[in-house]
Design brief:
The chain is of the alpha+beta class and 236 residues long. It has helices spanning 5-17, 21-28, 32-39, 48-57, 62-66, 71-78, 131-137; strands at residues 100-110, 123-130, 145-150, 164-168, 178-183, 188-195, 203-207, 216-219, 224-233. A nine-stranded mixed sheet has the order 2-1-3-4-9-5-6-7-8.
């Protein structure tokens, strides 16, 4: 029995991202048999929320899986001809190296003071990352992310002066404490952030990794969470 076009397209995208059936099912939050049944032709017309979740892990939409443009011919051509994806932010429009995507770079170093955070005024030349890493490992679109350089010693030894961090702007909730890049009312910083639950008014507690730097609290209305740190790189 000839497999459906959705099975072939699903298999092609899995191969490009190096995803196994089990890994794709787990990351998409569907049953182990869901992906397997599509690939084996047992489910020839899948759809609905489950397929959308699978597609999001593969960096596409359910429609892309159901109606692949040009089938295998396009798949072969895509390996030699780079076509920019439509979800890259306008500020990064330029010729991308094949297999890479542009991520906006915030040219203000996290740790410097300032009068506010106005992103459009702080954008520098974008940084390029492997598309498989962004869409597969981080499960993000280039427009979801920002790159910023850490300044100072407050987050040592975890993060050091000059480290580059990737920030996921979709993740702005501090219900679960974590390392965030944020504007604290005085400047853009990279710190641990959490709710100050015992405060009488909404407050954000901001802490450093380095014990030499004291924690402090800021009224929540003065804080702008840019995003959670999801990756970092360090010069050797």
């Amino acid at each position: 029995m000839d497999r459906s076009s959705v099975a072939r397209e699903l298999e092609r995208r899995m191969a490009l991202l190096g995803l196994t059936q089990k890994a794709l099912s787990r990351n998409a939050g569907v049953g182990d048999t869901y992906v397997r049944d599509i690939l084996k032709g047992k489910s020839r017309n899948p759809g609905g929320e489950k397929l959308e979740r699978v597609a999001s892990i593969l960096g596409c939409t359910a429609r892309d899986l159901l109606f692949p443009a040009g089938g295998r011919t396009v798949a072969r051509e895509a390996r030699s001809t780079y076509i920019a994806t439509p979800d890259q932010p306008e500020i990064t429009v330029e010729l991308n190296p094949p297999g890479y995507v542009a991520v906006p770079y915030i040219s203000l170093r996290a740790g410097m003071g300032g009068c506010g955070y106005v992103e459009d005024r702080l954008l520098g030349r974008p940084k390029f990352f492997e598309e498989e890493f962004v869409r597969g490992a981080l499960r993000a679109s280039p427009s979801d992310l920002r790159v910023i350089e850490v300044e100072g010693q407050s987050m040592e030894p975890m993060l050091q002066n000059g480290d580059m961090v990737l920030v996921d702007t979709r993740k702005t909730s501090i219900i679960e404490p974590g390392i965030f890049v944020l504007f604290d009312g005085d400047g853009v910083v990279c710190k641990w952030a959490e709710r100050a639950h015992e405060a009488t008014e909404p407050m954000v507690r901001i802490k450093s990794e380095n014990p030499r730097f004291s924690p402090y609290e800021v009224p929540a209305e003065q804080v702008q969470i840019i995003g959670r740190v999801v990756w970092f790189a360090r010069r050797l």
